[in-house]
Design a protein that fits this description.
The complex is a heterodimer of chains A (about 120) and B (about 850). Chain A has one helix and nine strands. Chain A is mainly beta and about 120 residues long. Chain A has a three-stranded antiparallel sheet. In chain A, strands 2-3-4 form a three-stranded antiparallel sheet, with no helix packed on it. In chain B, about 30% of the residues lie in helices and about 20% in strands. Chain B is elongated and about 120 Å long. With about 850 residues, chain B is an alpha/beta fold. The two termini of chain B are about 50 Å apart. Chain B has a five-stranded parallel sheet, with helices on one face. In chain B, strands 11-18-12-13-14 form a five-stranded parallel sheet. The chains are: A mainly beta (about 120), B alpha/beta (about 850). The structure holds siroheme (SRM), flavin-adenine dinucleotide, iron/sulfur cluster and FE2/S2 (inorganic) cluster. The site of siroheme has 22 residues of chain B, from strand 34.
């Protein structure tokens, strides 16, 4: 099962309250978030509203506020919160011994949210 | 090596029993044996191998042993007699070197061969050693067993000769902090180095982590968070210092590595048993080999490896149920996993954390803070069930919350009073939070600032003080810092019943607090608050870490209150300010270099043209603010673009900031046939004075050379209209949706005077306006007279304000682009890693930074 996870480096690379990106096949990006509660989440880096780069938003609780028009997106489910409707695919992520792993299939396959961790 | 203990005959002769061999004489191994003996004392002939040359002891109590609160004898769980009485053969000091599954034997390091029918692996964990140069030097220790404690005590003893000695603990988790506490009680000067910005980040949120850090610092420990160890420096083969990646070096007579643990799976892996992070077990603690069981920290159960004792007890019960099952009763249900909770064993610090406090969809935080007593409580509720809790300062209800959490009890009936604890919330207790206040004793202190008791507040209400203001005026409660306002309002409600009108009419900063902007600003200064988590604690924020509205506001207020002292919190800034560029709808950025007063020259224009070519910028445009905007730059390219612009002498134009934007000018007396003064020159001077300043909102200036006003100075935050006799200073204008023309502030005779008043006006605005309030709405709210009074009533006011502005500017006029171009915060511009070759087969990940 270890082989199914892609090691993308140590947790220290992302300061709490920030996100960083991982470009993948086809020019898309995955955004990896580190919350102030020290949880890690990965989403496709594209807001369900008008594809704003979620990695650049303000992170509070386990929500990111999109930098373009302030939609709030749940980091856990990828779902837009409040009145807004839409959902961005999530990528299964695991932290182990200080390193971040993403589910390999979700990173390289076409349909990130299809598989669960 | 100890000789095998004598065997006492009892029940089934030993020779006829199944042979159970246990590897690991630690907490889980021995507990499993105890549980088996309790169920069926005759079933197994038991042999335990222990790597440590001693009997079974309580590992978690090593911390009190280090701190001098307990001796080893106090923490022994099973002394020699236990082994004898239960006919257990203990082979201590002889670690098992190999498991031979073919012959069903284990082989000790000494060569001893022991056959088994059932084998139990309980090897625990190994401390993780970060692979830095110097990790093998003498004096680098871990914190796992009694030998480690002895080494630390020896170092503390040696340190006494030279004033205590120095210790560095790498890792600010539970183990590291307990080691640091023990060493500091033993007289050493301790520095804790922690990679993350929050101590014990796995158990604590930012708020509780901040309180813990503040308390440890108060006790004299040095806590370096966000600090990455580069190297352990040695002298004559012994450690002498720890070097950090940022170059700092900390002297150390001893270094304790407490960065984490790894399940000890080596033996199992070598024997071909299935291992991932831990040894894989099913719900009955059976490994991939049915004859081999495993328990404790070395196992992985349903994807989880545990590092605390509570889960081990559950595992051991399940293991014993299965290992002694006769088939006569229902099959044992097995182990289903555990939720864990943590307490820190540092005397005088009460801290509890349990469950999942990362929230999630539909999760709600209930937060209570008591600044005077240093208390922070946060309970996370989801679907009417407690899912997590973090308590600092008062952990009396920790077990109760944890119990609610484990049982999954529906708490909707006690929701309102939940945060006040079990005493208020359970046992048919009142549901109303006011009831908690009603239950307070009459002499309970309500207002810490003015020492007002509940009795006095109630008395003044009975005497006719029927509103918050009246209470403030009569007995002074809630009249100072205001943090007891909620309590006073409860007392008003309780005492007056329906007569109390309720709610105050102030507009709060956001839903995280009951304070308005003015109060927050005032209290930051009065109470000397210097960090966002500190403001949230002292002002009783109702959320753990604020929201996208209050964080940027607090960051600005702190920056304005403590110039040069407060360290800007990047993560509390909107993207544009964090990236020093304007985000566009396609996620690229636009870059606007400063053009002082709208002037430019061939060198700047060439540099801009070159950047447009070099980075294929799809558009370059003259802005409405009299400068050039380069569009379509990728975040990765920004530092290189800035480096090129810097090379031509240009700095950030802050087109993205709640800060000074542009200073527009017209040509003025230099060229224009109507010009009365050098408006261009004054504009350039004003821009040099004010650039780089952070403000409540964006701030624009313009200088027109005559009343024809070609620079549109009368719709700017600060506008200058030059006239023959001097300069008319105009304030509070803006374009935008709601156009507002400026008001005349005053008229002055000289450029110097105009500049001084500009600085003073900006500082007044910086110190008084609410975050995201531009000068126009600010002046509409407070009135022009208020602004004039602030500037002119006291003849010294202008100079004092201007001096404060200049002081603040001495820290601000530092081009943010230059720092980024030189590599600062490079992670903001780089991808985390690249997946290559972007094909499903043969994938590699290359870390970028
Ligand atoms: C680039 C520019 C338009 C242009 O191509 O000329 C511009 C672009 C934007 N303006 Fe502007 N404004 C620009 C000059 C102006 C001017 C003209 C001026 O400064 O004389 C005004 C009217 C004067 C004023 O500010 O009062 C102006 C009034 C606004 C407003 C309304 C402000 C208000 O207080 O009501 C907004 C909205 C806001 O800030 O909330 C706004 C907001 C914006 C934003 C930041 C919208 C946004 O939030 O993303 C635009 C950013 C585009 C980008 O990504 O670069 N822009 N904007 C101008 C940049 C000037 C510069 O060199 O820095
Ligand atoms: C200082 C300290 C403080 C702690 N505080 C707390 C706390 O407050 N709360 C909490 O819940 N938990 C705490 N823990 C964690 C807790 O001690 C562990 O979760 C628990 O001890 C794990 O039990 P175990 O039997 O799996 O491992 P251990 O107790 O480590 O036992 C494993 C034993 O196996 C032996 N062994 C390993 N390999 C071999 C081999 N090849 N042959 C023979 N023997 C071998 C080891 O020497 C060791 O004695 C603390 C730990 C430490 C070190
Ligand atoms: S006027 Fe509107 S569309 Fe044009 S730059 Fe300003 S905010 Fe954008
Ligand atoms: S693109 Fe995210 S809110 Fe509009």
């Amino acid at each position: 099962m270890i082989g199914d996870w892609l090691d993308i480096g140590p947790v220290g690379q992302i300061a709490p309250g920030n996100a960083r990106t991982l470009p993948v096949r086809g020019g898309a990006e995955i955004a990896i978030f580190h919350t102030l509660d020290n949880q890690f989440y990965a989403l496709v880096n594209s807001c369900p509203h008008k594809q704003g780069p979620l990695s650049q938003g303000i992170v509070h609780g386990n929500v990111v506020t999109c930098p373009l028009h302030n939609w709030n997106i749940s980091l856990k489910s990828g779902e837009a919160l409040g009145e807004d409707k839409g959902c961005v695919p999530t990528i299964p992520l695991r932290v182990d011994a200080g390193r971040i792993y993403l589910l390999r299939e979700a990173v390289v396959g076409g349909n990130p949210s299809a598989q669960a961790a | 090596m100890n000789a095998p203990m004598s065997i006492q005959d009892r029940g089934t002769p030993r020779a006829l029993r199944e042979r159970l061999v246990v590897i690991g004489n630690g907490m889980a191994g021995c507990r499993a044996v105890e549980e088996i003996l309790a169920r069926d004392p005759d079933r197994y002939a038991i042999t335990i191998f222990g790597a440590e040359p001693r009997v079974n002891y309580n590992r978690i109590m090593l911390s009190p042993v280090l701190a001098g609160e307990k001796a080893f004898d106090d923490i022994v769980i099973n002394a020699a007699e236990w082994y004898t009485d239960n006919a257990i053969t203990l082979i201590s000091g002889d670690p098992v070197a190999q498991i031979d599954r073919g012959t069903q034997t284990v082989i000790g390091k000494s060569g001893r061969v022991e056959p088994y029918d059932k084998l139990l692996i309980a090897t625990g964990s190994d401390p993780f050693i970060i692979p830095v140069p110097g990790k093998d030097l003498a004096g680098v220790v871990t914190f796992r067993d009694l030998d480690d404690v002895d080494k630390m005590l020896a170092a503390a003893e040696a340190g006494k000769a030279h004033g205590g000695g120095t210790a560095v603990v790498i890792g600010g988790g539970l183990l590291g902090l307990e080691a640091a506490h023990g060493l500091s009680l033993r007289g050493m000067q301790v520095t804790v180095i922690h990679l993350m910005p929050t101590l014990m980040e796995r158990q604590l949120d930012e708020a509780a982590g901040w309180l813990l850090k503040a308390e440890l610092e108060r006790r004299g420990q040095v806590i370096l968070t966000g600090a990455d160890t580069a190297e352990i420096v040695g002298k004559d083969g012994h450690v002498s210092a720890v070097k950090l990646k940022d170059g700092r070096e900390i002297a150390a007579d001893i270094v304790v590595m407490a960065v984490g643990i790894r399940p000890a799976t080596g033996l199992a892996k070598a024997a071909g048993i299935e291992v991932e992070r831990g040894i894989m077990v099913d719900d009955h603690m059976v490994t991939s080999d049915p004859a081999i069981l495993a328990v404790g920290e070395c196992v992985q159960h349903r994807g989880t490896c545990y590092g605390l004792v509570a889960p081990l007890w559950d595992m051991c019960r399940a293991l014993a149920d299965a290992a002694t099952w006769s088939g006569a009763t229902d099959a044992p249900t097995g182990y289903a996993g555990s939720v864990t909770s943590t307490k820190l064993k540092v005397s005088g610090i009460d801290l509890f954390s349990g469950g999942d406090f990362s929230g999630g969809d539909g999760a709600e935080d209930i937060v209570m803070r008591d600044a005077a007593r240093g208390i922070y409580k946060r309970v996370v509720v989801k679907d009417n069930r407690v899912v997590g809790a973090v308590l600092y300062g008062d952990t009396a209800d920790g077990n109760w919350y944890f119990d609610l959490l484990k049982k999954g009890d529906d708490i909707s009936d006690i929701r309102e009073a939940l945060i006040f604890g079990q005493a208020f919330a359970s046992g048919g207790a009142p549901l109303d939070p006011n009831a908690a206040v009603a239950a307070l004793a009459n002499d309970a202190e309500i207002c810490g600032c003015n020492g007002v008791s509940k009795g006095r507040v109630v008395q003044s209400i009975l005497d006719g003080a029927c509103s918050l203001d009246a209470v403030r005026a009569t007995c002074k409660a809630s009249a100072s810092c205001g943090s007891c306002t909620g309590l006073v309002e409860s007392l008003l409600a309780i005492t007056l019943g329906d007569e109390f009108a309720g709610e105050r009419a102030i507009k709060t900063v956001c839903k995280c607090t009951s304070f308005g902007h003015d109060d927050v600003r005032r209290l930051i200064v009065e109470k000397g608050l210097k960090a966002i988590p500190q403001v949230m604690q002292e002002l009783h924020w109702s959320t753990p870490d604020g929201c996208a509205s209050c964080r940027p506001a607090l960051n600005y207020y702190l920056l304005c209150a403590w110039p040069g002292e407060y360290e800007d919190d990047q993560k509390s800034r909107f993207v544009n300010e964090r990236m020093h560029a304007n985000i566009q709808k396609d996620g690229t950025y636009s870059v606007v270099p400063r053009m002082w007063g709208g002037l430019t020259n061939p060198r700047e224009l060439r540099a801009i043209a070159d950047v447009v070519d070099k980075f294929n910028a799809p558009m370059v445009k003259v802005t409405g603010g009299q400068r050039l905007d380069i569009f379509g730059i990728k975040k990765e390219d920004l530092p290189a673009v800035w480096a090129d612009l810097n090379a031509a002498g240009m700095v950030s134009g802050h087109a993205y900031g709640k800060s000074l934007r542009t200073v527009k000018t017209c040509v003025g007396s230099e060229w224009c046939r109507f010009g009365t003064q050098d408006s261009t020159g004054l504009g350039v001077k004003l821009e040099h004075l004010t650039w780089g300043s952070w403000m409540p909102h964006k701030f624009k200036i313009a200088v027109s050379g005559c009343p024809r006003n070609c620079a549109e100075a009368t719709i700017k935050d600060f506008g200058v209209i030059c006239v023959d006799s001097g300069y008319e200073l105009m304030v509070g204008g803006n374009g935008g949706i709601k156009l507002r023309g400026t008001d005349l502030l005053c008229k002055v005779a000289t450029e110097a005077e105009a500049m001084r008043i500009c600085a003073a006006f900006i500082q007044l605005y910086r110190e008084q306006a609410h975050y995201l309030e531009r000068t126009a709405p600010w002046i509409e709210r407070v009135g022009l007279d208020h602004v004039k009074a602030g500037l002119f009533d006291d003849p010294e006011a202008i100079e004092r304000l201007a001096a404060r502005f200049r002081y603040s500017q001495s820290f601000m006029q530092d081009d943010p682009w230059a720092k980024r171009a030189a590599g600062e915060d490079s992670e903001l511009h780089q991808h985390l890693a690249e997946v290559r070759p972007l094909m499903p087969s043969a994938i590699t990940v290359e870390t970028v930074s």
